[in-house]
Write a structure and sequence with these properties.
Layout: H1 2-44, H2 48-64, H3 71-96, E1 111-116, E2 119-121, E3 126-133, E4 140-143, E5 146-147, E6 150-155, E7 158-163, E8 172-180, E9 183-194, E10 200-203, H4 214-222, E11 230-232, H5 242-260, E12 265-270, H6 273-284, E13 289-295, H7 313-318, H8 333-338, E14 360-366, E15 393-396, H9 407-418
Parallel strand pairs: 2-9, 10-11, 10-12, 12-13, 13-14, 14-15
Antiparallel strand pairs: 1-3, 3-7, 4-5, 4-8, 6-7, 8-9
């Protein structure tokens, strides 16, 4: 029974639904049409303000966007940023950019430009720096035919080398040679082995010869001087003008320096040789003289040559009279070297060590000279005529030419010239 009732209820509900559904659908359908018409009407008849408002909103949003947010501004800023970044990164890019390897440069041509120092005492090894270009680490160095005992590569422009000591017989200038993988180069006379003393140049006097200097030469030879360091000049005219003799002496000194490799000489001058040697120093600037010693020098002339002017030659005339005034100074020699005899107006020892120079002067004078009259004429640095008080003047008592063989004179000469030497320049 229950199921019958249930079924009837279901049937009724279905009929009711069908009956109601038709009307509702019609209402719904009619309603949709009205709604459509209403929507269309609203769209067609929407107030102009609403459309303008939309447009205004759109324009407002565009206009009121910050410049940086607007699309055109963003494009411009993007371009600026791009350019800025490009400019900022360009140098870094250049710096970071891997450079193409340069083509290998050919090595510098091997060359020696100098050796410092350019000399050394023969009995000692000498460390030197060799300057130039194109040096390599495998360089070998030779001084003459002797290999350097040590070679150090400093740079392609400099080497360090130690030149060994040699025998006395091997003193003199030597070539310096560098040998390495890319070739070899020789600097002629690049280094000199020197004796411990300077070469001696001995200058004879009026009407004299080199023979008068033999006693001094023999003594120095026995003292150890090598033969090539004992040099005695022979003037072409032993009574000629001191102006000419000074020129000949300059050439003689140059030859000695070239042959020995030394930079300075010691001069020992006798009698009128004192005038020509002092002229040489004054004319040359004295750069090649270290010690100067005169024995019975005719520095201020001598009255003896006035007794035979016709036989004295140009040199004799230049010594007459003793202590010549400017007007009486033949060829101007005495006045050029000494100035006014009673006024300190000329430096009689130019470039002298006593005044801060480099030449060490010593004058040996004899109170019993007999040829240089007065004997005080042999003194230097005189404040007035006859003044021998300067400490560079040394008194002895011998006849003029006998002084050259006197033991005390020879000893003084050796002492004076051996007080200084090439070691002073190192």
């Amino acid at each position: 029974m229950r199921s019958i009732w249930v079924n009837m209820l279901i049937l009724c509900a279905a009929l009711l639904l069908v009956s109601c559904g038709g009307d509702d659908m019609q209402e719904i359908s009619g309603g949709d049409g009205d709604a459509a018409e209403h929507d269309a009407s609203e769209t067609d008849s929407a107030p102009d303000g609403d459309i303008d408002a939309t447009e205004e909103i759109t324009e407002f949003e565009i206009e009121d966007k910050p410049d940086g947010d607007s699309e055109p501004a963003m494009e411009d800023e993007s371009e600026l940023e791009s350019e800025s970044v490009s400019e900022a990164e360009t140098p870094e890019a250049d710096g970071d950019e891997e450079l193409e390897p340069e083509a290998d440069q050919p090595p510098a041509t091997l060359e020696i430009s100098g050796v410092d120092p350019a000399f050394g005492i023969y009995s000692f090894s000498t460390g030197v720096y060799i300057s130039g270009q194109g040096f390599t680490s495998d360089a070998e160095v030779f001084v003459g035919d002797v290999a350097a005992s040590e070679v150090g590569f400093v740079s392609d422009n400099q080497l360090y080398a130690v030149f060994p000591a040699v025998d006395l017989a091997d003193i003199g200038p030597r070539d310096v040679r560098v040998v390495q993988g890319n070739g070899d180069f020789t600097l002629e006379r690049g280094f000199a082995y020197l004796y411990s003393e300077d070469p001696v140049v001995m200058v004879h006097g009026w009407s004299g010869s080199p023979d008068e200097m033999q006693w001094i030469a023999n003594h120095l030879r026995e003292a150890g001087y090598p033969e090539g360091y004992l040099n005695r000049i022979a003037y072409s005219n032993n009574m000629g003008s001191n102006l000419v003799n000074a020129v000949e002496l300059a050439a003689f000194v140059d030859e000695v320096l070239l042959r020995t490799g030394a930079s300075k000489v010691d001069i020992v001058a006798h009698s009128m040789g004192g005038l020509s040697s002092r002229l040489y120093i004054r004319n040359s600037g004295g750069v090649h003289v270290r010690d100067y010693v005169s024995t019975c020098g005719a520095h201020h002339g001598t009255s003896e040559t006035c007794l035979a002017m016709g036989l004295a030659g140009e040199g004799g005339k230049e010594m007459c009279p003793a202590y010549a005034e400017e007007a009486d100074s033949y060829n101007g020699i005495q006045y050029l070297l000494n100035g006014d005899p009673d006024v300190e107006d000329v430096d009689e020892t130019p470039f002298g060590a006593e005044d801060g120079g480099w030449i060490y002067y010593n004058a040996i004078y004899s109170i019993t000279d007999g040829v240089i009259v007065p004997h005080t004429s042999s003194c230097l640095n005189q404040k007035s005529s006859g003044d021998c008080t300067d400490e560079i003047n040394h008194q002895v008592s011998h006849f003029h030419n006998s002084a050259l063989s006197a033991e005390d004179v020879i000893t003084m000469v050796e002492q004076f010239i051996r007080r200084h030497g090439p070691a002073d320049d190192m």
